[in-house]
Every structure is written in structure tokens, then in C-alpha cells.
């Protein structure tokens, strides 16, 4: 399959996902990138570490920007996303392994919470 065909397939797959599935995909990517950042930090691969942290920050910023303010929980989620962004900036700047170890389980917990909500809603889940 050529690259253009793959991109079209990928775009169609994304377009056919429910909002809940998209949210879970973003959280999966966030957890994955935070793990890559951790591994790169251990290897002192600063370029890979910074790239992974930048991607984490981009994902959290996107999650924050796409919140639907008509839901009361959105305000709380926005504060949490602000906290994550702040901590990720500190981790990136300080190359702080201990803080990254502390943050990663929080990201995984958020993903797991949204996964449970998606499952309980019968696949119709939507971010607050």
C-alpha cells in the first residue's frame, strides 16, 4: 500500500470512530508517549525525551481545547489538564525522572477512568 493510500485509510478509520473511541485513542497515545519519554530519559536521549514530552503536552492541550463547556465536569477536567501541562513542562525542563514517575500513573488512571466510562455508556461516551 502506498503512503497516500495508507493516509486515506488512517483518516477514514479516525472519521468513523465515536467521540469516546477518539478520546481513548488520545489517552492511549498520551500514556505511550509518557512511557517513551521515561525510557528516553533513562537512556539520556534528550532529543527523544523532549519530543515525547512535547507530544504529551500537545495531546493534553488538545484535550483541554476540545472540552464541551456545557458540562459541569469540564471545568474540573480543564483544571486537571492545566496541572498536567504545568507538570509536564517542569519535567521536560528539569529532565526530572522522579516527577515523571509520579505523573505517569495519573495519566494511566485518567485513561482507565475514561475507558470504564466509555464501556458503561455503551460506546456513546463523550468527553465532559
Write a structural description.
This protein has 128 residues and is mainly alpha-helical. The protein has helices at residues 3-15, 19-43, 46-65, 73-94, 97-120. Helix 2 (19-43) packs antiparallel against helix 5 (97-120). It is globular and about 40 Å long. 19% of the residues are buried. The model has no long low-confidence stretch (mean pLDDT 88).
Secondary structure layout plus pairing:
Layout: H1 3-15, H2 19-43, H3 46-65, H4 73-94, H5 97-120
Helix content: over 70%
Number of helices, counting only DSSP H or I runs of 4 residues or more: 5
Extended strand count: 0
Distance between the termini: 38 Å
Characterize the main sheet. Answer: none
3D shape: globular
Order of helices and strands: HHHHH
Q: Give the overall pLDDT as a whole number.
A: 88
What amount of the residues lies in strands?
Answer: under 5%
Structural class: mainly alpha
What does the radius of gyration come to?
16 Å
Q: Provide the low-confidence segments as ranges.
A: none
